[in-house]
Specification:
With 83 residues, the protein is mostly helical. The protein has helices spanning 10-21, 30-43, 46-49, 58-82. Helices cover 66% and strands 0% of the residues.
């Protein structure tokens, strides 16, 4: 229902760039965050990606990104269920 209201404004692109390239995280947290961010982008439909100028790399996304994302999320779930 909100799709017509969404647009790739300069502010939206700046926010995406900030969150993807310079997240406010310690250096050790950035590699896992990058995997989660790449996995999140891979899940977006084209109509959501294009206005934000996010990359679309089907071969990489369908293989390496999904495997890395599933592995990382599985590890997080495992760690959270241990407690």
């Amino acid at each position: 229902a909100y799709r017509p209201e969404l647009s790739g404004t300069p502010a939206a692109r700046d926010a995406a760039k900030f969150l993807l390239l310079t997240p406010p995280l310690p250096l050790l947290a950035r590699p896992p965050y990058a995997i989660l961010a790449a996995t999140s982008i891979a899940m977006l439909p084209a109509w959501a990606r294009l206005p934000l100028r996010l990359p679309y790399l089907p071969p990489v996304e369908t293989t390496a990104v999904r495997v890395a994302g599933r592995t990382l999320v599985g590890g997080i779930r495992w760690a959270l269920n241990r407690g």
